[in-house]
Amino acid sequence: MTSSAKNNNLMIDSSSSEQWEDIPVTGEESYQALRRSLSRKKGFNLLFVRCSPIQGKQIIEQINKDLPHKKSATLKLDSETDNIYEQIINIPDYQQLNILFICGLETALLRYEEAESEGYQLPSESPVYGGTWAGIPRILGYLNLSRERFYQQFSFTIVFLLPEFALRYFIRRAPDFFDWRSGLYEFPTDKDTFEEEVYRIAYLDSDLEKYKQFTPQEREEKLAEVKAYLTDSPNLDPTKQSELWFEKGLIHTQQAEYEAAIASYDKALQLTPDYDLAWNNRGIALANVGRFDEAIASYDKA
After folding, report:
1. Which of 1, 21, 99, 112 would be 72's cystine partner, CB 3.0–4.6 Å?
2. Taking Cα atoms as reference points, which of 176, 168, 147 lies closest to residue 84?
3. In CATH, what number does 191-301 get?
4. Residues of 38-62 as b/e, b for ≥16 C-beta within 10 angstroms?
5. Residue spans of alpha helices (H) in 90-237
6. Is the pTM of this model over 0.85?
7. pLDDT, tens digit, 9 for 90 and up, residues 165-211
8. pLDDT tens digits, residue range 139-164?
9. Closest alpha carbon to 50 in 98, 19, 22, 9
10. H or E stretch including 47?
């Protein structure tokens, strides 16, 4: 697996000494370290890989190609997933696995992350909902409480592939489970790859009619993908960032989530003040919530 990315840090946890090492590496070096680890590990192990969604797909494909003797499977989580343990035991012949890749955690976490940033309480924080881990998404709460079951039941390596915002959330909210990690691998941000992916999201995949037909799950998946690229690309050109915020606004608009859409258009306009489509769509969203004077002002800007 090649990468034109700049150097970043690969952090490898030594299970015997509980020491962390910071080793400057390229994307290729990160991949080779991960491949070597997966080739020699036996029994239950827990690895975390910080990468973009497209990098995650490439990593899985390359590992399967480079380690054909290892039986692997991929578990893709969605916005409705609460209990990862139950998902794993429903995989046919899971006992025969050597490696299980888990991706999509960012989708399952998005509703909590966005709610937290907006400052309102989540259903899972209420005893009525059955939540007993205040402020902790149920999916991570289950992991905290069931880590012994993972160790006892699964004799293979579990690899979580997740973008930066989901990794930060995992570390904060599931520390008991995260502490069992035997490795954390960080793949550097490849600016060219990110810009290519932004183009795909903002132009090739942009479809207003499709957004209108989104199921709640599809909405969560698309928003999580957009957020992953926003948080994992600090060096992304401001114009590209604004296009991602605009796309996020479109998704919210087509789902009649107008306040969230306005907030996204505002973010886009902070980065690109002369973004005429953002001013226009901001006006549409403002009009839909009855803020007509502000809507007229936005149309004037457009």
Report:
1. 99
2. 147
3. 1.25.40.10
4. beebeebbbbbbbbbbbbbebbbee
5. 105-118, 138-153, 164-173, 175-178, 191-199, 208-212, 216-231
6. no
7. 788 878 888 888 888 888 999 887 666 666 676 666 666 566 667 77
8. 888 888 888 899 999 999 999 999 87
9. 9
10. strand 45-50
